[in-house]
User: Fold this.
Amino acid sequence: MSLLDLHLLGSPVLREASAPVAAVDDEVRRFVADLFETMHAAKGVGLAANQVGVARRIAVVDAEGERLVLINPRILASQGKETGEEGCLSIPDYYADVTRPEQVTVEALDEQGQRWEKTLTGLPARAVQHEIDHLDGILFLDHLSLLKRKRMLAKYKKEHADDPSFIKPVATVAPEKG
Ligand code: NI
Assistant:
């Protein structure tokens, strides 16, 4: 296994719609293992493939005991609304309240290519929605009001003005969570 470099806000791949996985093979399994390792090293609860520069519909979540492999994931049903704080490994040190459905039923393939389906609430539900957003090129800040989003982007640009690089080794990014 190996740690993968994270792509940060500004990297074009974060805005790409990712391509479905045609076959779950050894290469995909290795990649899933690397995603888990990278996410754990960065102390995140979820990580999508395009956050490491790979525009394929693969993500992982490990939150509150839910270890989920999301290959070609799809939300089948959602209900309720809940507001909670989110961060993102691609936008280190930035957090904001995001309102999302409280409960989601998701289907996906696991690393064996087996279809699974689960109804989730709480942090796992939030993390799965956040990661599926990534696969569609959507970031949590897109859920904020225009004013809040503009403020956050302006602050981020200012803070990163001296360091315009979009790609970082995990060790130098996100000492907290995301
Ligand atoms: Ni994220």
